[in-house]
């Protein structure tokens, strides 16, 4: 009996001590998990910083998507040069500013249409610039003019692969086509060919001329618009 009572006292004392110890540990645990602990402060600051960064990136993505989905601005025809298809009008235009696009366009007009009327020269320029804006062709004037050059039967403009050196001998004609090229690059209305992307002289009859809709004939050139592809069902 005495042993049992003594054991009960020991057990009771141990339990009381354990309770005090657990309470102390609980208090210590509360202090460590409070917001004043170094780790918690860093974590709070990181959350704040990353939250601001995510908000900033989200805003940038929205701005980028807005710009990408915005339709391209329409050309302001009121600012385009008021073209008159005459040599007198061309002679009054300022000297061309030059540049790669201008040179490639002027060269193409010279070798493809220097013997044509001013209207016919503008029509050839229209075809080249229509191709630049089409997804089916290179997106630069020089890219369009030189597409396929160096490959047999692949060049798009005959003068680039006919084996004859491209030497400008007629300076008067060069000065004229240079102004035609500059006016075209400056936004002259493309109103002559009905959106044509192809042309050929009356002396030839290429296979594609049988399926491409012809839009107009100017001087010695027939002009055609590339057919729109339809999805197969």
SSE arrangement:
Layout: H1 2-32, H2 38-69, H3 87-91, H4 100-113, H5 118-133, H6 141-145, H7 171-185, E1 198-201, E2 214-218, E3 221-224
Antiparallel strand pairs: 1-3, 2-3
Helix pairs in contact: 4-5, 4-7, 5-7
How would you characterize the overall build of this protein?
Helix content is about 50%, strand content about 5%. It has helices spanning about 1-30, 40-70, 85-90, 100-115, 120-135, 140-145, 170-185, and strands spanning about 200, 215-220, 220-225. It has a three-stranded antiparallel β-sheet, with helices on one face. By secondary structure, the protein is mainly alpha-helical. The protein is built from seven helices and three strands; from the N terminus they run αααααααβββ. The protein is globular. α4 (about 100-115) crosses α7. It folds into two domains: about 1-70; about 85-225, no CATH class.
